[in-house]
Amino acid sequence: GRRRAGAVRPGQRVRVRQTLHGVTPARGGQLVTLRCVVEIEDVDRPALVADYQALYYTARASSASDVAPPA
Fold first, then answer.
1. Phi-psi bin for 21: left (phi > 0), alpha (psi -120 to 50), beta?
2. Rounded distance between C-alpha atoms, residue 62 and residue 10, angstroms
3. Is residue 40 within 8 Å of residue 14, measured between CB atoms?
4. SS3 (DSSP) at 66
5. What does the pLDDT look like over 10-59, one tens digit per residue?
6. What residues contact 16, with CB distance under 8 A and at least 6 apart?
7. Listed residue (43, 33, 50) closest to 7, CA to CA
């Protein structure tokens, strides 16, 4: 989900906070969900609150040649 809460004006300082909300198996990989909050300095409401999801896969080496650097 996403919620836009306030505009960032030129010259304002911002920061992003990310919190891990979950890791679940999905389609042969791991679905990672992060909550991202964009905060504006000296402002009570965040500029943006969003959930970010990424699906990660790990490669499995089938032989030593798959992981060794080329000669």
1. alpha
2. 52
3. yes
4. helix
5. 999 999 999 999 999 998 899 999 999 999 999 988 888 999 999 999 87
6. 36, 37, 38, 39
7. 43
The single residue listed with the structure tokens 């000669």 is 71
* Tokens representing residue 32 in the block: 């990672």
Residues in CB range of 31: below 8 A, 6 or more apart? 22, 23, 24, 25, 53, 54, 55, 56
- Please list the alpha-helical segments (H only) found in 1-71: 64-67
Q: Which two tokens stand for residue 63?
A: 């032989």
Distance CA 26, CA 34 (A): 16
